[in-house]
Design brief:
two-stranded antiparallel ribbon, 2 helices, mainly alpha, 2 strands
Length: about 70
């Protein structure tokens, strides 16, 4: 998988950011993002996401699975 992850909006709350956060916190994939600040602005759920937003979410999740780390809950 050779993707250019820099092509995605990586602001806090973006689809890419939420995908990478879900992976980091060991959550299952559940595409979503926030219009503005995470948890302080309206949340967009999978059913209302565009194909591009879904792609960005999954790219963020995949990126963290490949290059990121995981939250240590110990």
């Amino acid at each position: 998988m050779d993707k250019n992850y820099n092509q995605y909006d990586q602001r806090h709350g973006s689809p890419f950011d939420r995908g990478s956060a879900d992976s980091y916190y060991r959550r299952q994939r559940k595409p979503h993002y926030f219009i503005g600040a995470t948890y302080q602005s309206p949340e967009v759920l999978e059913s209302a996401m565009t194909q591009e937003e879904l792609e960005a979410y999954h790219a963020g999740y995949d990126w963290n699975e490949q290059f990121g780390d995981k939250k240590d809950w110990r």
